[in-house]
Amino acid sequence: MADITKRDQDYSRWYLDVIQAAELAENSPVRGCMVIKPNGYALWESMQRWLDDRFKATGHVNAYFPLLIPKSFLAKEAEHVEGFAKECAIVTHSRLKTAEVDGKVTVVPDPASKLEEELIIRPTSETVIWDTYRKWIQSYRDLPLLINQWANVMRWEMRTRLFLRTAEFLWQEGHTAHATADEAREETLKMLEVYRWFAEDILAMPVVCGAKTPRERFAGAVETFSIEAMMQDNKALQAGTSHDLGQNFAKAFEVKYQTSEGREEFVWATSWGVSTRLIGALIMSHSDDNGLVIPPKVAQRKVVIVPIWRDDEGRDLVLAKAQELAERLAPVAGFVHIDDRDKMRPGWKYAEWERKGVPIRMELGPRDVENDACVLVTRHDGAKHPTPLAGLEQAVAEHLDRMQRELYEAAVARRAANTHRLESWDEFTALYTSGGGFAHCHHCGDTACEEAIQEETKVTIRNIPLDAAPEDGACIRCGNPSKKRVLFAQAY
Q1: Could you give the CA distance from residue 229 to residue 374 in angstroms, rounded to a whole number?
Q2: Is the pLDDT of residue 83 over 80?
């Protein structure tokens, strides 16, 4: 077992070590892409289940749209194509042929198969979806149209890191159409609240909800909202976004509907999404120097039983009891894994499950069986809890609830300790040349000033918090008048 780098020694290396130790993902042969291993994909499946259930409870349904988009579609919405032009991968031919190059046989595009119109591997799906909606929407009776898709996208990133920023990643993208601007804005904020609930209640990760500045707005949106989380290195991570698209895409793709009065009007649109970046957020929110820590609500394995024996008689006794307990615990913990691998020391198994972040490890030996007891070890604090087998189900449920709550409380306390209200540029630069963190500061709203701050300090406005009260002040950098504080941080 390779050592995990300590967080205070090299945080970036620690992050990658945790992913490797927990067997979550690895780099693929294609630069910037990743292989998501079973443990990592189990986390994504769990996230999908929670979110998909909530999407459907709010009236949305799933569909699927093509991976390939005609290049001409992107040109229909000018801001959109400008925002994604540098990240697009393009398909130019439909087949290959063999050829000899420098004395070696290789494969090259077949010139005869060159496409009349090149195709874009989707960086996002607004264009192909709105071309489809044009055929689906005719009248006010077709609205609202509330659709989500689970898919992969491709963005040709220059600097990549597993889960946080990869050329290909998995996500969900909701795309909805509405009869009025008010309905679209209500949808945008409703889905932002779904993301806040998921981040805080399920991932135990506190977030700040707010509006992006015009400079940080999604390409083609009239307003973008985000949830921003603080990682253990005090940097921010954008964990989800929800966009009010106005009528931009409806006008670009001629998506109109007939009102109940017989008028023809363009629809109003939203889009919203989260991705496998959330796995990176989970790692950096909760994990420690011993490996991964998973909030119980999103853990595929909530409990693992490690049987301990010295001889065949002890083995049979302990495994029989372990199977009985696994079945008893299923209603409160789901599938319980029994680590019955032979010729492996218990200590090695303990360390492995600790690295993989299983919330509760149960240690069970012949003496425990005789005493009708076991030892439960909670991952987040490493505490050992001798526990009678009578009432085990309640004890496990209580530990899982406590762990979920304490992970959230610890993250809230860490964020509070590293969040500041700053009034001067000297305070600002001092903060971001030392420990960093979140800073609530006044800003004038000028894009040039915002760009200068990033250029000088690598700090960006993460969002304008929705709960920020009106407050007269002076911009943290230029001193011009400001009406509200914004959230600054260095970010991933």
Answers
A1: 37
A2: no
d(CA 165, CA 167): 7
Q: Which tokens go with 320?
A: 């029989």
Q: What is the mean pLDDT of the chain?
A: 96
**CA–CA distance, 41 with 25 (Å, rounded to integer):** 9
Residue 2 confidence class, pLDDT cut points 50, 70, 90: confident
Question: CA-based angle 424:429:433, to the nearest 5?
Answer: 150
- The CA angle 399-362-42, to the nearest 5 degrees, is 75
Beta bridge partners of 35: 26
Q: Evaluate if residue 378 carries a pLDDT over 80.
A: yes
CA distance 66 to 134: 16
Please report the pLDDT score of residue 150 as a whole number: 98
Strand order in the sheet with 373-378: 337-338, 303-307, 360-364, 373-378, 384-388
Alpha carbon 165 to its chain centroid, in Å, reads 11
Query: Span 108-130, mean pLDDT?
Result: 95
What tokens appear for 53 in the block?
């259930």
295, 406 Cβ separation under 8 angstroms: no
- Residue position matching structure tokens 């001409």: 72
Strand partners, 8: none
Instruction: Report d(CA 443, CA 194) in Å as an integer.
Output: 29
> Residue 376 contacts by C-beta under 8 Å, 6 or more apart in sequence?
360, 361, 362, 363, 384, 385, 387, 395, 396, 399
Which domains does the chain show, CATH number per domain? Answer: 11-92+108-286 (3.30.930.10), 301-401 (3.40.50.800), 419-489 (3.30.110.30)
Report the pLDDT value the prediction gives residue 242, as an integer from 0 to 100.
98
Task: Tell me the Ramachandran region of residue 303: left when phi exceeds 0, alpha when psi lies from -120 to 50, beta otherwise.
Answer: beta
Token pair, residue 138, equals: 């005719």
pLDDT of amino acid 109: 94
Query: DSSP label at 359?
Result: S
* Number of residues assigned to the chain: 492
Question: Rounded to whole angstroms, how far apart are CA atoms 487 and 467?
Answer: 11
CA atoms 374, 379, 381, 382: torsion sign: positive
Is the CB of residue 208 less than 8 Å from the CB of residue 240? Answer: no
The two three-digit tokens of residue 454, written as one number = 């990033």
8 A C-beta contact, residue 361 and residue 301: no
Alpha helices (H) in 212-371, listed in sequence order: 248-252, 277-286, 312-333, 346-356, 366-370
pLDDT > 90? residue 100: no
Nearest to 30 by CA among 96, 114, 91, 89: 89
- How far is residue 149's CA from residue 152's CA, in Å, rounded to a whole number? 10
- For the stretch 137-160, pLDDT in tens is 999 999 999 999 999 999 998 889
pTM score, two decimals? 0.96
What the block records as the tokens of 420 is: 């500041």
